[in-house]
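Justification of computing resources. Each target in the renewal requires a structure prediction run like the one illustrated here; the chain below, 187 residues long, is used simply to show the kind of job we budget for.
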Amino acid sequence: MRQFDTDIKYIRTASNILRKNNCFVTLNWYDSVQDRKTRETVSEESLDWIGIVDDNIKAVIQSDALIIEGSRFNYSQGYQTAIALQHNKPVLNLYRDDLPEYKEWPDKLFVSGISNPLFVSKAYRTEEDLERIVTKFLHDNAKKVHQLDVKLAVDDAAYKKLQNLAQEQNKSESSVIKDIVLSNLDK
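Resulting structure tokens:
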């Protein structure tokens, strides 16, 4: 956020790489920031920060992996990294080591120094570097899945329970059913 206008091209490049690899962004925060910056009438103090933080935490937990653009160090990057690792999500920390603040920042290697088999920290300088690193991370962490098309008929009472569960968990009905099936397969 400190150098949003400079950094946004790299964030969009990473997002485009995800799309190109049939992945999607769980939480697109950068378009809302761009919109706020364009309007210039919204003060940061007027934002619902509790909602923003909750949305970020939910997105990290629901995602398959986390990619951090960590060139501009801040608390939230470490916090989101910790949450992802606690939930066994692979994390890719990206940073541009040619930035002045990277060279001057005393704690620049704190996040990069995390020791966890699910954590990778990589420096890049160009969009080509970024594409190579992100593509490799996606390939290394691709899940092998098998798609089953299942038709399920439930009575009205069961459907209402399913709808309530989905609403409580902020998920779709099919995601709740998948969670129930998978948790029973583990038994």
